[in-house]
Amino acid sequence: MSAVSDLPAFPMTRLTPFDPPPGYAAAREAGGLARVRLWDGRTAWLVTGYEQVRSLLGDPRISVDRRREGFPFPTPGREALERSGRTTFVGMDPPDHTRLRRVFTKYFAIRRIEALRPVVQDIVDDLITGILADGPPADFVTALAGEVPSRTICHVLGMPLADRAHFQALDHERNTLTTSPENVIRATNEMLAYADELIERKRREPADDLISELVADQLGGDTISREEMVAAVRLLITAGHETTTNMIGLGIATLLQHPDQLAELRAAPSLVPAAVEELLRYISIFHISPTRVVTEPIEIAGHRLEAGDGVIAAVAGANRDDAAFPDADAFDVHREARHHVAFGYGVHQCLGQPLARVELQTVVETLFRRVPSLRLAVDPAELQVKEYAFLSLAALPLTWDEPREGR
Amino acid sequence: MMIEVEIDQCVGGGQCVMAAPDVFDQDDDGLVVVLDENPGPDRADDVALAARLCPARAIRLAGT
Ligand code: HEM
Ligand code: SF4
């Protein structure tokens, strides 16, 4: 076996903003996975083949428990974040994962989330009305992409809208790869305190929202302790936030760079759900995760993974596998993309995906219908796709034609 | 085609409901319910997609 210093370093840098680093294709060609070197000198398996990602994320011989020896982290700050504070079900294996996730599955059932469409539609319409009233140009990351998920989650969980700036800032600090370990821990603890207060408030003054229902269903019961509830509520506040924000921003940017397909979408809104699946696949904001550690030896694609080996199941690589998506590097709203793994795979697959879909579909359909002349206000090369915990877009300056006087 | 689901394995999320809403639903806990255990051949593609999308491999198809 080659020396550790000869292995490619991870995380890898992208050459173009919308495409995974070349090392992902190299790992895929090497049977779907290859060893990489992490900042702390340890190694891990970078998995970028579609079948291999699905197979490993669905394998019970693999753990999400960040405290286990060998668990891979992309940076020291990330290690601090993922090992700090109370973990919740995203960092727990069955049976605890099953017990806790099942407390929350009912709130994210398809039918309940579909019933939120009118609420999300109002949020999106209000924001667009405001943007149009202020006139062009506008930064759509702050004006729209950051607002839709935070307003939606405030509505769903029953949080005051005014609180969103507070948790947005904390969340961003946690997700920035360069944040120091101390600051990551402080931000996490502040969020836990916020979640604790929210639960307390809903206990005293229940309203028509998820947290009130959760408190009524579960607080004081045998299934979930108060501490576990606080940690899970912290996850619900943040999980759907930067993820969906970045998908909205990068999604709009992607569509604007494919004007022919965008014109087709405008002409046939029934294409929007398929286009959203293709955006999720093509962009795959989870570019360096999900991560796992092996607990029992696994043979896969001619490799033997030993207990204690770190696994980086980069869905951004799997979603560009030609074996699963012919001509995978091409963006094509007409392709069948529903089997993408942008929301992960296995028992931890995203619980909030129905909500993310409703938000994305509503934004795409409404924005381009109401503002057909929308276009980039800068050169596409100036768009800054940042690689941190997820791919993110720092700013999205857009412009449009204002209606002429007298119309 | 016969559909069997392993409810103990289900993790909610409703991929199956999205793929074939006339065949799968979710109960009050958000876990899978089969509405039609023996759907006609015209539903075969969507049901196969549901089984393929299920992240917990909780859906098994038997026969044709
Ligand atoms: C486009 C937006 C989103 C993307 C791309 C995304 C992606 C993901 C991925 C890849 C995972 C799996 C992590 C792992 O396997 O370790 C996950 C888990 C999770 N997501 Fe999302 N997510 C999004 C939006 C949301 C929303 C809106 C919510 C809800 C408010 C949410 C709640 C969760 C929760 C609770 C988990 C943990 C599930 C578990 O461990 O059982 N996500 N998400
Ligand atoms: S797709 Fe699988 S895990 Fe998801 S709700 Fe259906 S049966 Fe359950």
Report low-confidence residues of chain B grouped into runs of 5 or more: none
**What is the overall shape of chain A?**
globular
Order of helices and strands of chain B: EHEEHE
Query: Roughly how many Å apart are the termini of chain B?
Result: 4 Å
- Distinct ligand kinds: protoporphyrin IX containing FE, iron/sulfur cluster
| Beta-strand segment tally of chain B | 4
* Largest interface, counted by CB within 8 Å of the partner chain's CB: A-B, 23 and 21 residues
- Strand fraction of chain B equals 15-25%
For the record, the count of structural domains of chain B works out to 1
- The low-confidence parts of chain A are none
**What does the largest sheet of chain A look like?**
5 strands, mixed
What do the pLDDT scores of chain A average to? 93
CATH class (first level) name of chain B: Alpha Beta
Helical content class of chain A: 40-55%
Provide the gyration radius of chain B in Å: 10 Å
Strand order of the largest sheet of chain B: 1-4
Question: What features would you describe in this structure?
Answer:
The complex is a heterodimer of chains A (407) and B (64). With 407 residues, chain A is α+β, with helices and mostly antiparallel strands. Chain A has 17 helices and twelve strands. In chain A, a hairpin with a 2-residue loop joins β6 (298-300) and β7 (303-305). In chain A, α10 (181-204) crosses α11 (210-218) and α15 packs across α17 (353-370). The longest helix of chain A is centred in the middle third of the chain and has 24 residues, at 181-204. The mean pLDDT of chain A is 93. With 64 residues, chain B is an alpha+beta fold. Chain B has a single domain, classed as Alpha-Beta Plaits, CATH 3.30.70. Chain B is built from two helices and four strands, in the order βαββαβ. In chain B, strands 1-4 form a two-stranded antiparallel sheet. A two-stranded antiparallel sheet of chain B has the order 2-3. The mean pLDDT of chain B is 94. Chains A and B meet through α4 of A and α1 and α2 of B. Residues 5, 10-16, 24, 32, 54-56, 58-59 of chain B line the site of iron/sulfur cluster. Chain B: Its cofactor is [3Fe-4S] cluster. Chain B: Ferredoxins are iron-sulfur proteins that transfer electrons in a wide variety of metabolic reactions. Chain B: This is Ferredoxin. Chain B: Keywords: 3Fe-4S, Electron transport, Iron, Iron-sulfur, Metal-binding, Transport.
